[in-house]
Amino acid sequence: MEEVVRAMTCVIDEGLAMYWGTSRWKAAEIMEAYSVARHFNLVPPVCEQAEYHYFQQDKVELHLPELYHKIGVGAMTWSPLASGLLTGKYHKGVPDSSRAAMKGYSWLKERLHSDEGKQQLSKVKELHLLAERLKCTAPQLAIAWCLRSEGVSSVLLGVSNKEQLMENLGSIGVLTQLTPPLIAEMDALLGNKPRGHKKATRS
Questions:
Q1: Distance CA 56, CA 192 (A)
Q2: Containing H/E element for 153?
């Protein structure tokens, strides 16, 4: 760990980067890196790249908030649409042009056809109805849901064209509609709210 922190500090000292962060690290590993940086007067990580969406919540909502409040490490989250699962494109099967049909993504196709995947798709359909009620798209609602978490610094988007980018950016306008009662309704619909620390949201 000391070698990693020293190496990243060297990169920053050389002017090749301004900050550094981690990706898929455990909370304990991030805390260790921070402790090493403090002990040797080096540069600590400022963010963790973590998967975060409706069906992947534990790390961002249970394990990272403590680091956010203690040492200021934020989350740069990825896969807000769960590899396209939340867009609705898989409601009627796997389109030939979709990611799940591409070579190397057999794991995604298997996931969609699993019992868990079918249950998730059923919940996605209900979330689409909720998005219609809010007069936004399902991807916009899903991304806004990610942005609402206090410790989330940014959400990484994966788009194929300009239209998708503009649609996704529209999620910022949906944020104000995510009131506590609405989030509670979504939690009840999903049925997988992490148990433990209280979820922190932006006011």
A1: 9
A2: strand 152-155
Q: Residues in the chain, how many?
A: 203
Residues 6+ apart with CB under 8 A from 131: 137, 138, 140, 141
Cα gap 64→101, rounded to integer Å: 34
* 63 has a pLDDT exceeding 60: yes
CA distance 136 to 138: 7
First and final CA of the chain: distance in angstroms?
36
Neighbours of 74 (CB within 10 A): 17
- Give me the percent of the chain exceeding a pLDDT of 70: 93
Q: Helices 115-134 and 180-190: crossing angle, nearest 10°?
A: 160
Q: What tokens were used for 195? A: 């148990």
DSSP summary character for residue 178: -
The pTM for the full model equals 0.87
Per-residue buried b or exposed e for 138-158, using 16+ beta carbons within 10 Å of the residue's own CB: bbbbbbbbbbbbebbbebebe
Q: How far apart are CA 33 and CA 42, in angstroms?
A: 10
The Cα–Cα gap between 141 and 173 comes to 10
